[in-house]
């Protein structure tokens, strides 16, 4: 145990998913210590989430060089899990404004070694953007839907795909969108049966939920 952080190294054996480091709120010296231990070549894959670009820039350059860092999703990993044979996940977003959540999900899947495809800008305000991609989406084994504002995409796609669907509301939107609460309520009250809903902006959680399906 260092800096008050006690790793759950046995998590993979228990549930098939490794532990990740949620960086938001952690002091810089604790993050530097962790990043130094789990960089490329360490043989211990660890995903760092909510790692802000400004914070990552303060990490010593030799440590930064040992990571695959993606600024939009605020994710980093040194080693990734080996590619998993079989199973593919579609990550479908309503708009590019939802990109920070969309790519957190996609990057988590990449880290987990799970094949995936990202379909951005499929919002239902232009329904053709979704329908022309539907065949490709349904060719996948699970679907993650990322949407803010009224989050109608979750209900629409929930009625068009037979695949397990995990919906993530985002904090994108004006005024009464209330930081994603309107999108969350919309997804939770979806009339499409069997739509599972994650917490606001939780792309990581959606990727892990899809991974549980793929791992079965």
Overview of this protein structure:
By secondary structure, this protein is an alpha/beta fold. The chain is 34% helix and 17% strand. It has a five-stranded parallel beta sheet with strand order 6-5-7-8-9, sandwiched between helices. Strand 5, helix 5 and strand 6 form a beta-alpha-beta unit. Helix 5 packs parallel to helix 10. The two termini are 33 Å apart.
Describe, in short, the structure shown.
The chain has helices spanning 11-15, 28-37, 53-56, 61-64, 99-111, 128-131, 134-138, 152-158, 181-188, 203-215, and strands spanning 20-22, 47-49, 68-70, 75-77, 88-93, 115-119, 142-147, 165-169, 195-197. The chain has 216 residues and is α/β, with parallel strands linked by helices. A 5-stranded parallel sheet has the order 6-5-7-8-9, sandwiched between helices. Strands 1-2-4-3 form a 4-stranded mixed sheet, with helices on one face.
Largest sheet, order of strands side by side?
6-5-7-8-9
Rg calc: 18 Å
> What share of residues is helical?
25-40%
Sheet/helix structural class: alpha/beta
How does the SSE layout of this entry go?
Elements: H1 11-15, E1 20-22, H2 28-37, E2 47-49, H3 53-56, H4 61-64, E3 68-70, E4 75-77, E5 88-93, H5 99-111, E6 115-119, H6 128-131, H7 134-138, E7 142-147, H8 152-158, E8 165-169, H9 181-188, E9 195-197, H10 203-215
Parallel strand pairs: 1-2, 5-6, 5-7, 7-8, 8-9
Antiparallel strand pairs: 2-4, 3-4
List keywords for this structure.
single chain, 216 residues, alpha/beta, five-stranded parallel sheet, four-stranded mixed sheet, 10 helices, 34% helix
